[in-house]
UniProtKB/TrEMBL annotation:
Gene3D superfamilies: Luciferase-like domain. It holds the Pfam family Bac_luciferase. Residues 11-303 form the Luciferase-like domain. One of its GO terms (molecular function) is oxidoreductase activity, acting on paired donors, with incorporation or reduction of molecular oxygen. Transmembrane segments: none annotated. It comes from the Bacteria. The keyword Cell wall biogenesis/degradation does not apply. This is Alkanesulfonate monooxygenase SsuD/methylene tetrahydromethanopterin reductase-like flavin-dependent oxidoreductase (Luciferase family). Keywords: Monooxygenase, Oxidoreductase.
Amino acid sequence: MIRLDYQPWGESLAELADAARRAEDAGAGVVWAPELHRSAPIAAAALISGTTTVGVGTGVALAFARSPMVTALTALDLDELSGGRFRLGLGSGVRKLIGDWHGVPFDPPVARLRDTVAAIRAVIAGAHLGDPIVHSGETSIAVRGWRRPHAPVRERIPIHLAAVGPAMTALAGEIGDGWLSHELCPADHLAETVLPMLRRGSARTGNRPEVVVSACCSVDADAGLARDRARGVVGFYASVKSYAELFAGAGFAAEHEATVAALRNGAAADALRDGVPPEMAAAFTLSGTRDDAAAGIARYRGLADAIKLSPPTHGLAPAEIRAAQDAVIDLIRELA
């Protein structure tokens, strides 16, 4: 049985928390907070405030935009706030985002993420002990003469790593408590491309990360309307040059190239749906009728441990997003 997770949406933090509560009531296993328009830890705190039993994770927080010390203390606080329900999802982001938006080093990303995770784990495990906490590498810390005067709920908090490329995905297999995909990860791509990468990393250490697939889910009695709502999400990801192989493998190389060009020529990231035909939306999202979405979810059984569903948001008015969100939560209730 595959676990159904959910990524709530809300115009306000209060609405976000309410959506998490409704997803929990529907049977979701974990609710996840992304980081783009909000701070993932603050959004996760809102999700915690609205729920009582469901797991809560950052899906994902930017690993390099905060120091390992700040990230570790934030994770400890969120784990305490949630009563041990928190999981820390981290991702490297991309070079332009990390360098231009956050003004921090990105290269070398694989080694930097490896050391960041090691430093975070060291702080989480030892903050309450008062012993020196030292890690040296691309990311280094040396904490001496300090002790956190609060007992942790857990001395090891699960860390899930988001990864796309082969080296980063292998790293998730090697050291991650879990692996998180981005929103476009069809079942055949997971089976044929991603899982072999994860296994290569796992073979180094015997680690077995939880596999969490993310999927934009758009459900309506009118399958055409559902897929139309999902086009903006696909367009957003199709504007990223590094996803060329993903789209080419599914027969959409020309559409990907056109979308990259549209963004380069000044189109807003939320306005790239026009270059996404309905069949492209159907290939990369769980969109259509409830039966279509249920059948799409079933294709991940035996491949993934969980699937993180999220409503379409890009290029849609709030009322449309709310309708799409209600439909996904109803689907979780039927299937969980």
